[in-house]
């Protein structure tokens, strides 16, 4: 189990990251308060702190690979994989990867989606950190976990920058996939 409380200045570092996330009212539709990580990514100090904080959380966990979602997840996943000295597996929407792929269908709020990874991306027993920018209801995160498990990968945890905690994603991942969630920022969902 991760011991986040022993990370130096954890709360101070999280506050620095949190202040770099902007909130946009009524996007993508009326009544939604969108948490925009692009302002965090654009802020060199906050972005570096985000990756450094994830690194401090996972550096002793012997992660073999980071699996990250298209598109914002790639930004965090690639930087963290570099820091951890691992590779990164790209999880993309259907039809975006060349060659043979493995896929999983999943439910969305208004329909279904399909995620894919290359058919040679993971090996049985690899310890994988599944990472994305945001966790809401857990549908996409669950599909990412399921997809990695098709290879026999061992999912260490699901990591995200932002958890919209009252939408229940972390509970869903724990209940359905027996996977713990590590989030840096918690906001209510709208």
Name the features.
190 residues; alpha/beta; 7-stranded mixed β-sheet; two-stranded antiparallel sheet; 6 helices; 33% helix
Choose one word for the global shape: globular
Order of helices and strands: HEEHHEHEEEEHEHE
Query: Average pLDDT across residues?
Result: 95
Q: How many separate helices?
A: 6
- The CA-CA distance between the termini, in Å, is 30 Å
Class computed from helices, strands and strand pairing: alpha/beta
Low-confidence stretches: none
Helix content range of the residues, please? Answer: 25-40%
Share of residues in strands? 25-35%
Strand element count: 9
- Tell me the radius of gyration: 16 Å
> Strands across the major sheet, in which order?
5-6-4-3-7-8-9
* Largest sheet entry: 7 strands, mixed
Topology at a glance:
Elements: H1 10-19, E1 22-25, E2 33-36, H2 38-42, H3 44-58, E3 65-69, H4 72-84, E4 87-93, E5 101-108, E6 111-118, E7 127-135, H5 139-149, E8 154-164, H6 169-177, E9 181-187
Helix pairs in contact: 1-3, 3-4, 5-6
Task: Give a nutshell description of this structure.
This protein has helices at residues 10-19, 38-42, 44-58, 72-84, 139-149, 169-177; strands at 22-25, 33-36, 65-69, 87-93, 101-108, 111-118, 127-135, 154-164, 181-187. It has 190 residues and is α/β, with parallel strands linked by helices. The strands form two sheets. A seven-stranded mixed β-sheet has the order 5-6-4-3-7-8-9, with helices on both faces. Strands 1-2 form a two-stranded antiparallel ribbon.
